[in-house]
Structure formats: structure tokens, C-alpha cells
Amino acid sequence: MTLCHPHAPRTARTLHLAPVARRWAWAAAARRAGLAAAAGLAALPALAQVGLAQLLAGTLPVTLTYPTAAPAKALSVGPFNLAVAADADPLPGTHRLVVLSHGTGGSWQADHSLAATLARAGFVVAQPLHQGDNFRDSSQAGPVSWGTRPLEVSQVIDMLAAHPQWQARLRLDRVGVHGMSAGGGTALVTAGGQWRLVDLVRHCQAQGDADMGFCYNGLADAAAQARRRAQYDSARGVPDLFLPAPMTRLQGGRTPAAEGDDPRPDARVAAVTVAVPVAAMFTADSLARIRVPVGVVAAQRDQMLVPAWHSSRLLQACSACSLLADLPSAGHMDLLSPLPAGIAQDEAARQPRGGAPEAGFDSRLRDAAFQAVADFHRRHLGP
Asked: What is the mean pLDDT of residues 217-228?
């Protein structure tokens, strides 16, 4: 099989490289847990004032999490149990926006713990359900989605800027972006990072066994891994000059026309945070050109995106990047909201390496890392 570029026609067999695929088995998990995918209304003690609303940016579903004075109530969404004030009025005044980009095959529910932390800190958090790369539909996961996700971030900001209820409640001149895993790659593009498919392929030719969780994501079966390896090897020894142009084309942020030009595709993005981000396919030059502040949360036991080629590589190449939290006992999945047991087991079974939360990980470290993310955005976005 030959390698197809990210924008190949859908009839082509596109190389799907989902860096952190989490195709939640929602329906099955909900049946196992006996949970309805709708709101439960039993009152809970108010853990915090966190509001929740659902909007659309065109056809793109967007979940808003925001500060409110209304009391929290129980909300069951699939197998996740939340405590929020659904459709409550936000706190008075205007607020800063953080757009939160989920990982491959993910959802807003899996990142709700961080969204709630940001809301308690005074932010409005917008979580798009990335099209073709979410728990319901992962048909475009990997390079195809990497090209569309950053556009969806801007689409969300545009929608809120024109929204009759929210435009007056938001200050959108300086917007924050956060991403986890593949969402971290999305966030890096909004900061100006650029990637090439050929760099992904070269990385997996050289480090495929060591970075197996990335290069063979979602392929626990040895035969499937062999087919993917053959895809990588089809470009082995071929100079870049002779590869199809889409494989060597820079994608993502803007290529500056002159030294010092702003590489951001959307100038409203003023601060970025990433947790266990995918970064192996980004060019070192583009990471070095990033000028907006970028905060990084790393997990040293991450086997899905091994730090040496992802978070550590980012920190080495990007002078605007700083380490917010380094969690020595955390794995990749520990940077999500706690997963219901059925989903965690399903995901671990799908992955060649690192698909389960780390046994014994202290969730208070995750909470502290999430608070560091909120503090970073407060510091860099301003009042």
C-alpha cells in the first residue's frame, strides 16, 4: 500500500495515524453501566459553580463550560457523571475564552475536569467536537483531521463573536487554547507550529518500535502493525525530492515571509497550553518561531506519546515554551478526567502500548497540573 497524503480523495486509502485515538465505546459502555445519555436531575452539594451549555458553530457541536452562581446538579452523559448547572446564566461581567481541543477519538466529557477547573478560575471554555475525529466518528482521524482541527478552533471563536447571548460576555482580543494529545498538536498549530507528513513517516521508520504507541496507535494486532510498517517502509530510502508533494508540504501555521513575521494562523490566540502533546511531526524551525507563550504538561510514564519525541522535543525546540508540570508517575490517559472502568479497559485492549491509566497514580497531581494550566492562562491572557 502506498502512502496517501492528508488531503487525498476519500476513495484513496489514507494513512490514518491517530496519535491518541480514544474511540470511546459509548453505546456499549452506557449499556454496561445502565446509564442514560441524558441529564439526571438529583441535586448535589455544590462542588463549584460550573455552568454547561451546548451550542453549534455551523454544524460543529460546541460545549461551553463557564462560571455561574447557580447550584450544581447531577448530570449523567453516557458513562460520565458530572456536577454542573445546565443552561444557567454565567456570572456577570465579561470573561476570557479558552478553546479546549480534545484528543483523537475524544469528547468534551473526557476533558471536563480541566474545563471545570478553568471555569472556576473565571474562564469560559469552548470545546468543539472535532468533525471526523471524535468518539462517534473517527473516519478522518490522523493527518486529515490535523489539517481541519485548527480551522475549527477559529470557527468556534468566530461563532462566539457573533452569538447574540455570548458576544457581549466575552473578551476575544486575547484567546487561550489548550489541547491534550492530538489536541496538543492542534494547539501548537494555533501557536504557529508546522508539520509535514514525511517527518512523521521518517520518525516512525527510525523510532517505530520505541514510539509504538504513536506510530501504531490503535493497532494492537501484530498483522495490522505489519501492514502499517509496510506503509512506512514504502518511503524508505526515497529522497524527499521524489516523494509526492503533499507528503513534503508544510501544513499548519503560517510560513513567515520575512524574519519576525507572526506565524499564527489566528492572531487572536495569545496563550497556549498543551498536555502530553503530539509533536514528533512538527518541524524544529517552526517550533523555534513560536512567539506566544506555551505551557507544557508532561507525563514521564507516557507510552502513547513518549516524552523524548514529543513533550521533551517540544521544550527543546521552542524557546517560548515552558514546563508547567512534569508528572513522573503519570501515563498518557492520566491527563484525562477519570475514565469509567469499561471505557478504560476497552481502550487499553485497543492499544499496542500505554492505553491504560497508571496504577497508583495520585489524582491530586492531575488536579494540581490543571490548576497550573488555569494559572498560566490567567497570567498571560490578562483580565
From this structure: 91
Q: Does the pLDDT at position 193 exceed 90? A: yes
CB atoms within 10 A of CB 242: 8
Domain-by-domain residue ranges, the chain? Answer: 26-381
26-381, which class in CATH?
A: alpha beta
pLDDT band at 87 (very low <50, low <70, confident <90, very high): very high
Number of Cβ atoms within 10 Å of the Cβ of 47? 12
CA distances from 368 to 14, 47, 297, 324, 327 (A): 39, 17, 11, 10, 10
* Other CB atoms within 10 Å distance of the CB of residue 349: 10
Mean pLDDT of 362-380: 97
Q: Does residue 41 contact residue 102 with C-beta atoms inside 8 Å? A: no
